[in-house]
Write a structure and sequence with these properties.
With 194 residues, the chain is an alpha/beta fold. Helices cover 38% and strands 17% of the residues. The chain has five helices and six strands.
Length: 194
């Protein structure tokens, strides 16, 4: 189980980074191989819609190249973003846009992989649901399996409020999401063996 976690926060050590590390640590403990990428300070040019990527190569040679390679290798993509104006951060959206290279020219390189999300907002109803829906739309457009945290909360993913370390309900949604990721990946592995 190779799980790639990407933090869409512009802050290296903020709330989003904390909660994504929290989730990845739990996934490590369950036997997964995890890696972490922060978009903070990365030089990622926005997609300019030129569709040169239909050849399989983006015209931009920037910090997105190793991220795309890591996405190709993962079994599960775990995205984490703060809520900015009710949606994912600008850094996360630019990264999402640049993945068009993974689904052009009759290729869907992320097809069948598992996608899950974590969102961090300032209030309990501070835009986390829409932020997670943005992530789910991204997963579905990449032909991935989008999963949520499941019962008892089922927020479309993990939803954090204010300071992550102090949000026990939010931390439980992260633990639920981690359990769902492991269960889904193990089930898929069993199906592949058959």
């Amino acid at each position: 189980m190779n799980i790639l976690g990407i933090s869409g926060s512009p802050h290296l050590d903020g709330n989003t980074a904390y909660i994504l590390h929290y989730a990845l640590h739990q996934l490590d403990g369950a036997g997964a191989q995890t890696s972490y990428v922060s978009l903070a300070g990365k030089d990622i040019n926005p997609c300019n819609g030129c569709f040169s990527c239909r050849s399989g190569i983006c015209v931009h040679d920037d910090d997105m190249t190793p991220i795309l390679d890591a996405m190709r290798r993962c079994d599960c993509l775990l995205l984490a973003s703060p809520v900015y104006m009710g949606m994912v951060s600008g850094q996360m959206k630019v990264m999402m846009d640049r993945t068009v290279v993974l689904r052009t020219g009759d290729r869907f390189e992320m097809s069948g992989k598992v996608g899950a999300g974590i969102s961090c907002g300032g209030f309990r109803n501070g835009g986390q649901e829409l932020t997670l829906q943005c992530m789910h739309t991204f997963f579905l457009q990449q032909d991935m399996l989008a999963i949520a945290d499941g019962p008892r909360f089922s927020h479309s993913g993990a939803a954090i409020v204010d300071t992550a370390q102090e949000d026990e309900i939010g931390l439980q949604t992260v633990r639920n999401l981690v359990a769902k990721i492991i269960k889904t990946l193990e089930q898929r592995k069993r199906e592949e063996v058959r």
